[in-house]
Amino acid sequence: MGKKSNMGKKGENDIQHPTSNIQQDEYLQGWKRALADYENLKRDLDKIKEENRNHIRIDLAQQLLPIMDNFEQAVNHVPDLSAVDRSVRKNIETWLQGVTFIKQQFETTMSELGIEKIEVKGEFDPNLHEIAEEGEELKELSAGWKIGERVLRPAKIIINKEGIDKRGNR
């Protein structure tokens, strides 16, 4: 005989099981939790990467500061060239310009890394400056450096003994 049609009849395939909706909701909630956990993990890893970059930048800066000090000393202590032969003097001056240029490149690179020189201005700041000795006027003996608000090394200064006490008070 002919085939029986299931149309219009409720068969087993047409019945929705109450557990299937509950199970679907559970799967959906599980996927949402997994996605949220993944997003949290990505955010945590980004934070850890940034902290690692900052630690590396600080470590690098600590290693570069003595080199920067040596450049500063070399540029600031140029000998008197007046008694030197003119051709030799010209060569030394050209060499000194090269050293000065390298120092400037070094300072630019440090600045690009977020390493900033601490400016010694008219007032003593105990958070940024270290008193090396007392004298007639405020003067920098060695540069201080910082990354953001973190002081890597305070500026060593000569302080006016009459104008400011060691706590920074006038």
From TrEMBL:
Region (Disordered): 1-23
UniProt main location, coarse: cytoplasm
Subcellular compartments: Cytoplasm
Keywords on record: Chaperone, Coiled coil, Cytoplasm, Stress response
Coiled-coil intervals, chain numbering: 31-58
GO biological process: protein folding
UniProt GO MF annotations: adenyl-nucleotide exchange factor activity; protein homodimerization activity; protein-folding chaperone binding; unfolded protein binding
Chaperone in keyword set: yes
Assigned GO CC terms: cytoplasm
A matching Pfam family: GrpE
Cited InterPro entries: GrpE, GrpE_CC, GrpE_head
Quaternary structure and interacting proteins, as annotated: Homodimer.
Family, per entry: Belongs to the GrpE family.
Function (record text): Participates actively in the response to hyperosmotic and heat shock by preventing the aggregation of stress-denatured proteins, in association with DnaK and GrpE. It is the nucleotide exchange factor for DnaK and may function as a thermosensor. Unfolded proteins bind initially to DnaJ; upon interaction with the DnaJ-bound protein, DnaK hydrolyzes its bound ATP, resulting in the formation of a stable complex. GrpE releases ADP from DnaK; ATP binding to DnaK triggers the release of the substrate protein, thus completing the reaction cycle.
Name the UniProt record assigns to this protein: Protein GrpE
Recorded name of the encoding gene: grpE
